[in-house]
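User: Can you model how S-adenosylmethionine sits in this protein?
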Amino acid sequence: MLDHFGREIDYLRISITDRCNLRCIYCMPEDGVPDIQHTDILSYEEIVRIVRQAAALGIRHLRVTGGEPMARRGCLDLVRMLHDIPGIETISMTTNGLLLDGRIREACEAGLNGVNLSLDALDPDLYRSITRGGDVEKALRVLDEAQKFGMSVKINVVPVRGVNEQELPKLAELAKNSPVSIRFIELMPLGCGASLQPIPTEEIRRKMEEAFGSMEEDRKRRGYGPAYYLRPEGFQGSIGFISPLSHEFCGRCNRVRLTADGLLKLCLNHTSGVDLRALIRNGADDLLLRETLRTAIERKPERHGFNEPVEDRESRHMNEIGG
Ligand code: SAM
Ligand code: SF4
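Assistant: Here's the modeled complex, given as structure tokens:
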């Protein structure tokens, strides 16, 4: 469906938990954040009910995220349930991958089409220190398996000044001999990210050109999202850039979000939204649910406004919002 600004909204990101098996330095404080009570989190049945109505309004693509989605029991059962909803064309997952180790076949059979794997370093010690405890070998095994099973695979890297600068060309090289996309995501000043220093996209692009020579735009990989992709000569895959701060992409935004506690969130950087959990638990029928979704999506904010004063600015961590 179209929002008030004429944007086609066909993509829903569903956060199913705020918990995580890792504590990445730009995302979560070392001792975690207070967990949402189990009863405050939408059940899988409630999520499916919402997605049915969203699909009736034109949502076609789903992404399951968190926190770490695989940290919630039965995550792949939810994928299976979402896969069965008429109108849903693709389901992907944003994950650190560690809990998918040995479960990629099952994930494919459940209907998962793609994974976006977060991987900020290849060096085992650096990976362990960025994630505060993760094992990079597991993440790499999952990367391998997902490709073998023909899933669409993208790797998300958050470059942080003074932390993983030296790893960036090595990470980009993963796209040389296989058709994966490596996407550099500009650090956003949300939660723990606010105290770290981003590396501007232009600087990373220059580094890539120094390492791999000139790059051509890869239009085939445009996808549904805000990334743009470049391909160095001789590469099977591409290098993508997602730069919410230096290149605002709100004019092409196609998405809304559902938080684990049931808020339909209309923009990453705005707290306003609709409490669908309250609506459902107060007995709303499907028609009311669908009309509530429709009017909320219509009034999606025009811009995230990271670089300007915003009245209802988001202050929660990414694991709570659903990154
Ligand atoms: N646990 C999963 C993972 O790490 O992929 C899914 C949730 S995580 C919040 C989703 C994405 O948000 C990850 O790619 C992560 O790197 C990114 N992220 C977290 N905090 C961020 C921040 N402050 N700025 C930019 N990206 C961030
Ligand atoms: Fe967990 Fe993902 Fe946040 Fe890292 S980025 S702490 S893996 S939710």
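A couple of observations from the model: Residues 20, 26-27, 65-66, 68, 94-96, 118, 156, 158, 185, 187-188, 190, 193, 318-319, 323 surround S-adenosylmethionine (ligand 1) (CB under 6 Å). The radius of gyration is 19 Å.
User: Helpful, thanks.
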